[in-house]
Amino acid sequence: MAIPHQSGDDILQRLDKNADGEISIKEAVADPIILESFSRIDINGDGLISRHELTSVHVRRSHGGGLN
């Protein structure tokens, strides 16, 4: 069964615990798919995932899902 697509804003809001507008590796631990794909999403390699970087990739969750 597929889990609905989540927008970058939804993911950012859910994972950005310190409300700085970015997801750190420590915050990404709460989501196995984001954590596994962290380095691919972090386009500029600064160790943080920004809203822009999240919207640059399509995060699609499905049973056994991943990033597309």
Account of the protein in words:
With 68 residues, the protein is α+β, with helices and mostly antiparallel strands. The chain has one domain: EF-hand (Recoverin, domain 1, Orthogonal Bundle). It is built from five helices and four strands; from the N terminus they run H-E-H-H-H-E-H-E-E. The chain has a two-stranded antiparallel ribbon with strand order 1-2. Strands 3-4 form a two-stranded antiparallel ribbon. It is globular. Residues 60-65 have low confidence and may be disordered. This is EF-hand domain-containing protein. InterPro entries: EF-hand-dom_pair, EF_Hand_1_Ca_BS, EF_hand_dom. Residues 29-64 form the EF-hand domain.
CATH superfamily: EF-hand
Share in helix:
25-40%
| CATH fold-type name | Recoverin, domain 1
End-to-end Cα distance, whole Å, is 18 Å
Using only C-alpha atoms, the radius of gyration works out to 11 Å
- Tell the overall outline: globular
Name given to the CATH architecture: Orthogonal Bundle
| Number of E strands | 4
What composes the largest sheet? 2 strands, antiparallel
CATH class: Mainly Alpha
How many domains is the backbone divided into?
1
Average pLDDT score: 82
Q: Report the structural category.
A: alpha+beta
Taking pLDDT < 50 over at least 5 consecutive residues as the criterion, the unreliable ranges are 60-65
The total count of helices amounts to 5
Query: Could you give the order of the helices and strands?
Result: HEHHHEHEE
List the strand order in the largest sheet: 1-2
Proportion of strand residues:
5-15%
